[in-house]
Every structure is written in structure tokens, then in C-alpha cells.
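Weekly modeling sync, notes
Attendees: S.R. (lead), two postdocs, one rotation student

Agenda item 3: backlog of single-chain predictions. S.R. asked that every request posted to the team notebook include the full sequence so nobody has to chase files. The rotation student volunteered to paste the first one in as an example of the format we agreed on. Action items at the bottom.

Example entry:
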Amino acid sequence: MNSAHILANGQKFCPVKKNCLTPTTFCSILLKSHNNMTGGSGMETGKLIAENAVNGLKKREYKGMLYDFYGELLTPHQKKLYEDAIFHDLSLSEIADEQGISRQGVHDLIRRCDKILVEYETKLRLVEKFSKIKQNIQQINRLTDDEQIKRLSNEIMEEL
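Predicted structure, as returned to the notebook:
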């Protein structure tokens, strides 16, 4: 049984084989199908893709903050793999090859670390408190013209 599917534009899509559909081709297919469904010009899709990219960046930034606050509570092995994935942007396969474990094992460990870090944040709320303090200091800076207050608030920001 052939696992390839024929798309509306005649191209093959292989859910198992990764080399059948390039990312560029896949994105153009998504744009075309979205435009056909909505009657749009692609601008809405472009905005959606950009929004997802921003959300992805925010998600990565949030993971980084969680790690900054709670990373020391992970085991050395967990820390190494998590840093490789999140900060060094290595693929699961690259990490698996380097560590001598399966790609699935790396994936599971990173998911477990995410869960652990989120559980710490749920209990302690340190990232939430930090963000709130940072926003308040920025607001103080915007609302004041007093240079001494701005200098003090900037010192506090640096300390955080």
C-alpha cells in the first residue's frame, strides 16, 4: 500500500517520507488552500504566520525565563539537553546523536523538563512576580520626568 497522497495541485504528499514535500512547497499549498477557502489574497495568512512566529518567540522567551529561574533545580543531564534544545537550537536528532539516546527519548525529556519548570512556576510564581515588577518600573520611568527617580528605577531594573 502506497502511503503517498496526491494533493489538489498534483504534487505528492508523503506523511512518512520527509523529502516528498519541501517546507516552501508546503507553505505555498497552505496559502493556496487558505485563499481558496476564504477567498482571500493571502494577506490574512501572512498575518497569521507572522503572529505564530511572534507567539513562538514569546514561547521560547518564556521557556528561557522559566529556565533562568528554576533551571538549577533540574538534574545535570536534564539541564544539558534542555540548554541544547532551547538555547543552542539543536535539533532533537543532533542532541540524540550527541548523547547516544533516541530522538524520542530527547523529545520526552525536553517535554518533561518543560512540565517540571511550569509546575515550579505554578507553585512559586517567581516569573510572574518578576514580570509584574519589571512592568511597574517601566511605567514609573514613563510617568516621571524626575531624573533621580529614573536613575533609581534603572538601577532596580539592572538588579533584577
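Discussion: group reviewed the output briefly. The chain is about 70% helix and 0% strand.
Action items: rotation student to repeat for the remaining queue; S.R. to check formatting next week.
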